[in-house]
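Progress note, project year one: complex with AHM.
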Amino acid sequence: MVKIVGITITQHLLEQQREKPEATGGFTHLLNELIVAAKVISSEVNKAGLVDILGSTGDINIQEEQVQKLDVFANRIIIERMQHIGQLCCMGSEEVADLIDIPSQYPKGSYILLFDPLDGSSNIDVNVSIGTIFGIYKRESDETDINFLLSEALQPGIKQVAAGYFVYGSSTIMVYTSGNGVHGFTLYPSVGEFLLSHENIRIPESGKIYSVNESNYEYWDEKTRALVDHFKSKEKAGHSYTSRYVGSLVADFHRNLLKGGIFMYPADLKDPKKPSGKLRLMVEANPLAMVVQHAGGYASNGYGPILEIQPDELHQRVPLYIGSKKDVELAEEYISGKRI
Ligand code: AHM
Ligand code: MG
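Model obtained:
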């Protein structure tokens, strides 16, 4: 029999819960259910390369079920697993235009779950790490009608009660914070348990990695170009940086969290009507901003903290500079024009 040594995520969540005498267990229940959804997604992601053998999207597979695209599948699994638990009043997903209501047959709770079900979609078919990102808020009023819950969901990231992500990579990893340190757990696949592997993660104050899609250089303004030029110049930076860019935010972020460095998705002029870059404030930037802040790092839109932005809409985009505190502060100096 396999012996599991170390702390499981369930044990860890219960220990955290015990430290808060007012806790009802509802939040632990919510996270546990999200973890089950992530295990299901992880196991499907591991089969992604078999699509050509078992059937492609739109085909009927050997169990006579419709084969779904993985991002659609991940979205469905999270909604189906989370809607019945009685802890949520609504959800918001990168894959769904409007807020998602809880079906009337299930009780409603006071938490709001915002998520990107499968981040890094361009990497799904090529065995490169992808992930799920989540942020959890508490409703501030007693409102339960979905037609009036949008203003409850549009809270600044600083109000998140917990946030984190799963990376489906060489291992499946979960990293989360509920305000009491940032902790990482690695899935032990044959046993199906997440075990504590990275306790109290602290991001180095400054790093040697910069991560950005440099093919956008011609669409950036002068300040953004000067910032990236800084990272490329040993003379300006005082030491050499190396460039690493996977193209899955969650994987790029995770590497930089552990090793130190900065991830950037600046505003660009590819679409003059959308000068806010590509990434979404509510389901991508805010959760990772909470994680990095509790690990001693920083996240900015170039002018100030991501976590203090008052959102106007569910799917709004935001320029993102995130990672080691000193590197992100340097980015702010360039973007806000204090340094040329
Ligand atoms: P997605 O949520 O549709 O996957 O898009 C977001 C992804 C991020 O994971 C990643 O950082 C970024 O898009 C990469 O974009 P680009 O290909 O423009 O560099
Ligand atoms: Mg995404």
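The chain has two domains: 9-198, 209-335.
The mean pLDDT is 92.
No further modelling is planned for this target in the current period.
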